[in-house]
Amino acid sequence: MNKLIQFGENVEGYSIRVLNEREIRASAGILFLATFTSLMLILFKNDFLLIKYVITIFLLDFIIRVFVNPKFSPTLIIGRLIVRNQVPEYVGAQQKKFAWVIGVILSATMFIFLVIVNASSPITGAICLICLVFLFFESAFGICLGCKFYSLFYKEKAQYCPGEVCDAKSKQDIQKTSGSQLLIVVAFIGLTFLMALLFNNHLSKEPYDLFGVHGSTQSK
User: Fold this and answer.
1) DSSP 112
2) In angstroms, rounded to a whole number, what is the distance separating the alpha carbons of residues 39 and 128?
3) Cα–Cα distance for residue pair 182/62, rounded to 1 Å
4) What angle do CA 67, 69, 75 make, to 5 degrees?
5) Could you give the CA distance from residue 63 to residue 56 in angstroms, rounded to a whole number?
6) CB-based contacts of 47: which residues, under 8 Å, 6+ apart?
7) CA dihedral of residues 175, 177, 178, 184 (deg, nearest 10)
8) Would you give per-residue pLDDT tens digits along the chain (220 residues)?
9) Residue 216 has what pLDDT?
10) Distance, CA of 70 to CA of 48 (rounded, Å)
């Protein structure tokens, strides 16, 4: 029973329980895609059906992670299948649990407002945006924003963070960014704004059907 209900895995060579960051990132990517798609349906079609399903699944998934065992989380299982051929990257379980408790609170609030009460408001919109940002940073950059708050509530230092960011160390040469590289980024952003300023009218035109497929379909 103890092995059934626990948080994190005991892995040889690690003094605390850990989780596989690779499957966590894969899971975050799945949830981000589902949430983002739901948001697009709301913005462009005013359709709240998908987001209600996503919120319910999101809440159940995080409840299983926090209160039962992460190994039984459906999205983490799918993530594990996706990255099964990749070498695991172990991270401390405690800071992840703290971050996922935040996920439970946010998704439970959304569930109450949108699913039970069936009401939308700036509160649900803000929470949805926060969840998207958290999921995007986790899946795209491997940065657990929820874990950043762990040290504010717990005295002990977080261990085994993704990318070893918990351990202060000097950057390797490949990690350093030169002034010329930063200048390239600034110039790239400036070029983007210049394109929007000079070519916006041209780029905003709807593309014509190159092969006339839609035209022939409508004529029939």
Assistant:
1) I
2) 8
3) 39
4) 105
5) 11
6) 41
7) 130
8) 557 788 888 899 888 899 999 999 999 999 999 999 999 999 999 999 999 999 999 999 999 999 999 999 999 999 999 999 999 999 999 999 999 999 999 999 999 999 999 999 999 999 999 999 999 999 999 888 888 888 778 777 777 777 767 765 667 788 888 999 999 999 999 999 999 999 888 888 888 877 877 665 555 5
9) 57
10) 29
Task: Tell me whether residue 199 is exposed, middle or buried, using C-beta atoms within 10 angstroms of its C-beta: 0 to 12, 13 to 18, 19 or more.
Answer: exposed
Distance separating alpha carbons of residues 144 and 138, to the nearest angstrom: 5
Nearest 5°: phi and psi at 19? -130, 160
pTM beyond 0.90: the answer is no
Domain definitions of the chain by residue range: 18-164, 173-200
CA–CA dist 51, 130 (Å, integer): 15
Predicted local distance difference test score (pLDDT) of residue 148:
82
Q: Is 168 left (phi over 0), alpha (psi -120 to 50) or beta?
A: beta
Helix (H, G, I), strand (E, B) or coil at 208: coil
* SS3 label, residue 20: strand
Helices (H), 122-176: 122-136, 145-148, 150-153
The structure tokens listed for 68 are 């039962």
